[in-house]
Amino acid sequence: MKRFFTQERLVTLVVAGVLIIDQLIKIAVKTNMYLHENIHVTDWFYIYFTENNGMAFGLEIFAKLFLTLFRIVAAILITVYLVKLVKRTDKVKNGYLVCLSLILAGAVGNIIDCVFYGEIFSESTHSQIASWVPLGQGYSDWLHGKVVDMFYFPIIDTYWPDWMPFVGGDHFIFFSPIFNFADAAISCGIIALLIFYSHYLNTETSHKEVKNETNIAYRSDHAGVVRHVELWQESAGRYYPAASHGEPAL
Q1: 46-50, 98-102, 114-118, 220-224: which range is least confident on average?
Q2: Average of per-residue pLDDT across 1-16
Q3: What are the pLDDT digits (tens) for 73-105?
């Protein structure tokens, strides 16, 4: 069993599992619900269909194309790092790999929305449910698709007291952001990474520093040895001129 669950397979299973679940939920919501339609599960949990152009939890900070390219670059860097980790002889803990795999899978899950959804789905509106369309006949271009969000947890829904400055009487909801399964995977991966495995990040940094210091010390020692040899040769040539020309100094 241990031989089957190698670190390579563990990473693959986590990434594939998150991606499959994420995409199944998004496709089910997008092809069965109107935009901003909601399903009441409990008073503090709704399935609320919305779409966004921005980052996790519906945040919109930068241009759409920039965010898509940023996600792609981040996913490539995490993938390269994971490959290096699983190939190391001094293996890291599986939990650390799971955290990184969750972050990678979440990033790729939202990348799929951005890259493909605009090309393969019709637009979701308040009066029209999206459907599959031939490639290229969707609601947007490549890299400009919208990320599908659906999980809404208004755990606290109340109003600020009137006596509070600036926000008195305003409506207050916690937790107001609407997110998807990929966002949840990223958040869980980052939180667990910071709580349980932050020392790995420090260790990686210290290993690089030690390696750099070792290389510097080696180069310094090597330069010193070369200089000593040069000084010896200069001295030999000064006292025994024949030795400097490769002749026996007799």
Answers
A1: 220-224
A2: 85
A3: 999 999 999 999 999 888 889 999 999 999 999
Predicted TM-score (pTM) of the model is: 0.76
Cβ–Cβ under 8 Å, residues 95 and 178: no
43 is catalytic: no
DSSP letter string over 172-234?
Answer: EEET--EE-HHHHHHHHHHHHHHHHSHHHHHHHHHHHHHHHHHHHHHHHHHHHHHHHHHHHHH
Catalytic-role residue among 43, 90, 141, 183: 183
- Which H or E run contains 66? helix 64-87
147 three-class SS: strand
Q: Please tell me which residue in 141, 149, 162, 221 is annotated as part of the active site.
A: 149
Q: Which amino acid is at 11?
A: V
Which phi and psi angles does 132 have, rounded to 5°?
A: -70, 140
CA distance 38 to 47: 5
Q: At what angle do helices 94-112 and 64-87 cross, to 10 degrees?
A: 150
Cα 101 to chain centroid, rounded: 8
- Confirm if 131 and 139 have CB atoms less than 8 A apart: no
Per-residue pLDDT tens over the stretch 227-244: 554 555 565 555 444 444
Of 189, 185, 182, give the one whose Cα is nearest residue 22.
182
Structure tokens at 9: 């397979």
Q: How far apart are CA 141 and CA 57, in angstroms?
A: 23
The predicted model gives 103-124 an average pLDDT of: 95
| Active site annotation includes 149 | yes
